[in-house]
Amino acid sequence: MKQSKYKLVYKTQTTPFFPICLAAKNYTRNLKKLIGFNLFLTAPIIAVIYNDITHWFFSQENSKPTTKFFDKFLSNNKYLQNIKNKENQSAKKLFRAIKTPITDLFDEKKLNKRGENKLKTLFKNIEDYFYFIDIPGFLFQLYYVPTFKKEIFTNLKIGRVKKEEIFNLILSSYQKTNYEKFLVELYNHILSQKSKENLVRISKDYYWLVHDYLGEIIDLTYLQNQINTLKKKSVKELKKELEEVETRIKNITKAKKLFPEKLQRKINIIQEILYLYNERKKVVMNKVNVYIRQIVQYKFSRKSLEEIHRIYQLMPEEVIKFLADKKIERFEGRHRNWVYELKDNRIKTGNKKYLDLVIVSKDIKILKGFIASPGKITGEVDLILNISHIQKFKEGHILVAPFTNVNYLPIMRKAKAILTEVGGMTSHAAIVSRELKKPCIVGIKNLISILKDGDLVEVDANKGRIKILKKI
Prior knowledge:
Oligomer: single chain
Strand content: 15-25%
Structural class: alpha+beta
Distance between the termini: 34 Å
Strand order of the largest sheet: 8-15-14-10-11-12-13-9
Number of helices: 16
Number of domains: 3
Helix content: 40-55%
């Protein structure tokens, strides 16, 4: 096996195998429905679960067919419009499905035949939804950013630093993110001193926002805690943050006018697919994931989230069997040491040789990654593997994470610098760090395996290099 051809694209202790595999399967399907001609990414996708952490690997062999995909996809707005239409249709199906009362799916806490069929249909609809919403956004971030960057730089007759600023701006969200909309709601609530009924409405509108498969569900208690935190920061500071959001959106509009009309159209398509991938998908899938979580918790009301997480390490059809009290072979060890291989729209147990992709030497002194936001800083590391660890982060430390999302924003603001193992120029960590003007390096191979809480490191985000000064 040539390990070098595989690239780690996702690593997390929060997001288990089962929900993500419904998206990943699509990368082994024909992409014809997206671009009008037959195109396959033929290399298998590898998922390695090791010590409760799930690692996803994609092959570099997919780079050439991906370029072919975007040459076609970005040539005409009709392909984007097709995706938006299909996404809307698929979302409606999913929203109808999650209205089914959970008790209708069970007979005395055992998934009944109707429940089995409902979940099979739900999982298939999730997979189809991901096909249209996931593929363009993910493939762009994984394989096509360097090509797009080259085109942007070629069309700008200014210094390199300014080119970088404009490129980063274009890849930022061109409208308010879900979290920014949520902050606006809280800001207006605090400012107007609205009633408790308004908080009830906000919780209904945003209960899904920070769920992240098995995370928190926003309720009145969560909102009140957020409001108390925001009040401590001061309303003026929050107002400034929201004004910066408006400034970003205006600056993106101005930046696009620097380019010829043809490239502007391409930029518009890319911004749309990234927004669909990063924001619209969360609205739909987080609501669906809350529903699935409630199904599992209804069945296993006494199980902890850690135990439910282990159930989620099964294949989709096995999850259904487990809920129906059917025997699952080799279930207990999967969270510790397991490999899945996805190919030809199928999932199977993979070869254990792929474990070599995640077991590395720890005698490394220099780590390298991609520059997301420049700067140089020295400090101690706080390793935040998932959102349950966020409370232990110390202000002024360096944030080390597999990746970041909206849940990490409070500690990203407190961090000296931000380091992630996966992600590229359009990742959440990259975009937010640039907005915060904090040093950030992303795509750092073996970061989580090597660094530990309290390690002293020098982050040189001007060169994309981390030097380990002292190990704890």
